[in-house]
## 1
Amino acid sequence: MKILAIETSCDDTGVAILDANEAGDFRVLSNIISSQIEIHKKYGGIFPAMAKREHQKNIVPTLIEALSQTGLIIEKKNAILSNDKKTGINEILEREPELYKKIIPFFKKYHLTAQAGKPDVDFIAVTNGPGLEPCLWVGVNLARVLSFFWDIPIIATNHIESHILVNYLSRKEIKFPAISLVVSGGHTQIILVKGIGDYKILGETRDDAAGECFDKAAKILGLEYPGGPIISKLAEKLVGCRTPHQLPRPMINTKDYDFSFSGLKTAILYHHQKQSKKIQKDKKYISDMCAEIQQAIVDVLLKKTIQATKDYNAKTIILGGGVSANHELKTQLLIKIKQELPNVEFLFPEIDHSTDNGLMTAITGYFHKKETTNWQDLKANANLRISK
Ligand code: KG4
Ligand code: ZN
């Protein structure tokens, strides 16, 4: 069974093709990601309208690369598109003219290697939320057009669930109940996972997400976007050392599983503003601050994740989301688990699968293959929740 998956919830345009057999073994046929980081670096963050434009520009080339790499299409001379099909595509993409301009030449120029009028693909999985609404619509509309054109059913997938289920790449079985910490640029949630598709959000951030805090802190310190990788790199040599600066650990002692990172960001801003221009540019000051910021974020994430695991007698801790690329978060969580919860298994994605990609969407699609949707009914939902 082959799944073609599309992911455009934030600033990465991802298309993947996954093959799964009856026994549930996965074979990754392609996983193409077109990153917008260079564009957003210039502006110090993501602007949704700009991110949408980039998705519109990149999505069809990304699709072509994924399909070609898998041998599902070949480039040929112009094909003739029937007027019916053209009108249908035009209607679906009424509000997505940029995508229309790209998809028509695609259908004309690339031929399918299969004879059935559709590629050798059984399902189209697409992230329909949560995420940046304008961006989500690009992926959703592409999925709708492909589904209409090739008559392939769609599976709508939840982006947060995909950050959890991507861990099935390294493991066939996960022991439940599990506690999942999903930490990304847009979300910070502690989720009780009773089984695949059975989730309860135990707590989440009341304001900024952990990744957002890394990104905003980096901006204050004059570092480039995205903040997480650069802050962790500059903090590398200082790990385990006491830093001369003390930042708050918001909500670390509250009895819930919620977070708040906007106060930390404000504390970073005030601390920075109090320094002279010379100190603000000083390499030692910047790396000391990076180490303290990273540790403040890690401390809170760790405390609440360990607490939730104990409270719910979880058998597994599953880490996911862009911030799960953070080496210190993984290392310190691993040490804590060994010390306090030696029977609990710890799963985290490979670094390439921590940040957004199409493959994670394909895996979620696989597990929800019985829940298909028609292209007519599919909508993006920026605030989609993994549980009520
Ligand atoms: O999951 P993701 O790719 O996109 C969203 O769904 O938001 O996460 C992106 C976030 C950014 O905020 C970025 O700064 C953060 O992940 N990130 C990191 C690291 N690599 C990426 N945060 C901390 N340490 C890292 N190494
Ligand atoms: Zn994400």
## 2
Amino acid sequence: MDSVFFSTLKLTPLPNASFSSRHFASLSVLSRKFPISRLSVKASSSAPSTSTANSQTIKIKSMPTKPIEGQKTGTSGLRKKVKVFMEENYLANWIQALFNSLPPEDYKDGVLVLGGDGRYFNREAAQIIIKIAAGNGVGKILVGKEGIMSTPAVSAVIRKQKANGGFIMSASHNPGGPEYDWGIKFNYSSGQPAPETITDKIYGNTLSISEIKMVDIPDIDLSCLGVTTYGNFNVEVVDPVSDYLELMENVFDFQLIKGLLSRSDFRFTFDAMHAVTGAYAKPIFVDKLGASPDSISNGVPLEDFGHGHPDPNLTYAKDLVNIMYGVNGPDFGAASDGDGDRNMILGRSFFVTPSDSVAIIAANAQEAIPYFQSGPKGLARSMPTSGALDCVAEKLNLPFFEVPTGWKFFGNLMDAGKLSICGEESFGTGSDHIREKDGIWAVLAWLSIIAYRNKDKKPGEKLASVADVVKEHWATYGRNFFSRYDYEECESEGANKMIEYLRDLVSKSKAGEKYGNYALQFADDFSYTDPVDGSVASKQGVRFVFTDGSRIIYRLSGTGSAGATVRIYIEQFEPDVSKHEMDAQAALKPLIDLALSLSKLKDFTGREKPTVIT
Ligand code: VG1
Ligand code: CO
């Protein structure tokens, strides 16, 4: 502690009401651990007589530190192997750099929310974040019990409690545990992921950081609800579900959904993948909506997700897929990812692509979901997401936006009142009820659509199924065949060279050129100018768009923690209903072959086969 100097912060008195019995309990723990004199927890002489014991001073340690390389955030927060985050000051540096990047009025005496997906290292990380927040003058932290709160719930709580922002301790769909990944995201005051203007500043500050400000208080007990107070700094441990559930009850018609879930001819199953939605599934689907308790599987959040990869897709949610495609499978199946913002929707022996899912939700929202009763304001998708949503926007005559990959690009459009429903092909769907994609919301949206379609069906009458809804949609709008090939953890050098090679092809390409049976309409590296604030995001994915609307897109992932993950997105529009039943892989075969040969993927990466096909 020699190199550590202390400064003492004078704090203002608190009203009596905030002195709960829990406060005294925590103070007594505190005084057992540290002699009061050392902690300088003392009554202020200027305190009003009604609250003599309430005004105290807490110590702020200024700890010297040095910059650490590589703390640049990707598509969604900073993600690294957990071992890296556990290195000295790694997390603390980033958190302090964040405070150094925000205007003080955005957090001083303000309220921040703290949540996480329950993964390994979250408990330690929560204590570090709380102490640094207090050291930088934050007034209050609202933290989910046991540090648990899903990404969409953090966004909901920030908005409801009018907080200044919030932290999410999660590497989302990346695996967890001592050998795997950890991550941190910061969301701003309207609940949206911090824009690049902020994350770029944070990165800049990680390169020049020299001091961490932290308060000298004991660890907060995150296992019981209640408020702990030190001076005018409060930590409130909150139920991670209640604000979120209240919002869902306002968005959806719970009676309508309950009617469906209570039918004996409708069977529902939800796989929480031992991730954060385990904490939400029972209170929402079982307790509120009447689903049977055994309809929830893997419903207990675990630090290593039960050795699973909490990514709800056809590869990693295999158990659910097997149930849904098995003999006498349920009518409706869904799964969510590590932090609860992704979703996968399945019918009996039927997979709904996320690109179709958002389009179908948008097409049915007005009639099936009370929140959208006056109709959606506008629709948006990420660039690689299929054009199914574009067709709905056109038919409903709605404003439409195409943004780069990553949810942070939707927030400005929502705040400006231009956007209601949006999605990404990567199993992310959501709306302007919050500023994150929302897994449980998507499941409730689909249940609402199925319930609405079947609301007048008598027992014994055949119900409209998930597959029926999707096929009807295709018949009305046409089908956008879509597939994504992921090549995970390639050597970075080869992957980067491949992208350079493709950029070079783009620069030499000309409209009208023949690529096999396809004629090029244009090729580019996607660039987006935010229509609200004018900010520009460039190099967001190499696109080859053909005259019949078919597309091939190449990107490198910005969420991995090792090597480079190459993503190839392939799409082809099919208006002919007689061809809609085709298997997507078969329908897309010529375009997939073209995508592989055009990019020389095998030569650059040495990969014969993708790791994941969606
Ligand atoms: C991926 C997806 C992207 C999504 C992001 C965060 O990013 O492609 O659509 O927004 O993950 O999702 P990338 O850069 O790896 O392609 V989550 O559930 O990790 O918050
Ligand atoms: Co996620």
